[in-house]
UniProtKB/TrEMBL annotation:
This is GPR1/FUN34/yaaH family-domain-containing protein. Its main location: membrane. Pfam families: Gpr1_Fun34_YaaH. The chain crosses the membrane at residues 68-90, 102-122, 142-163, 170-191, 203-224. GO terms for molecular function: acetate transmembrane transporter activity. InterPro entries: AceTr, Gpr1/Fun34/SatP-like. It is found in: Membrane. It is a multi-pass membrane protein. Belongs to the acetate uptake transporter (AceTr) (TC 2.A.96) family.
Amino acid sequence: MPKLDQVPTSVTLSAEQFEKLYLNPMMHRQSPLTRKLGNPTPLALGAFVVTATPLSCCLMEWRGAGGGGAAFTGVLILFGGLLLIISSILEFVIGNTFPSVVFGHLGAFCLAFGATMTPAYNAAAPYSETMTDTIAGLHSPGFLNTFAFFLVSMALLMLIYAICALRTNLIFLVMFIAMIFCFSLLAAAYWRMALGDLLISNRLSVAGGAILFAVAMLGFYLLAAQLFDSVGLSLSLPIGDLSHLWDRKEIGEYEYPAAGGDPR
């Protein structure tokens, strides 16, 4: 009679491993759905980096790119915005509040930015002299001065996220800190452009694009670290776990189902 071997259907994740996979500090009461559903975090990271990378290259005007990202309107809406919103909902379902909020706001930003540059939404045209020219409206002082406040608000949001990211990992923290400067520089670029100072505005845009490019590269690294762990590769990329800096009483261990297994 053949011997029956018991096959383990779950593995126990440490606080560091859980945080690395979900970008959320592990608490004692974790939603049981995290044991039954897949991890949506890499989906959001992939959407973010593929959207942010070409946009940053556009801001830095590499290979003659320009237009403020108008060429990426479809990418912003259908790739970045759509996938980030879907990821936000899935993070909400499995009880990961922080990633859910982050991905939801970034997804909404992509949708809003893409919609603003879409003539059908008529966001910029009223600022033009004819009230119908979207291109002229996008470059008008009234529109530039107004839209810059949206970027300032995003910078403040990144500041809050950076504080929260102190409970996660160093890569995530640095990304948010860098994005504070990115949004601030872009807001300043809009205000200088509204004053007609194209030279300083261009320099500020290039600086903002350079920071966004660095953020995107960190995002690629974080995405690779998560996917490598999710498929069980022996290559584990360090991300600078910060969970050990906090009260260990709030952090336990988590039992994660192995591929094809049922959670315990």
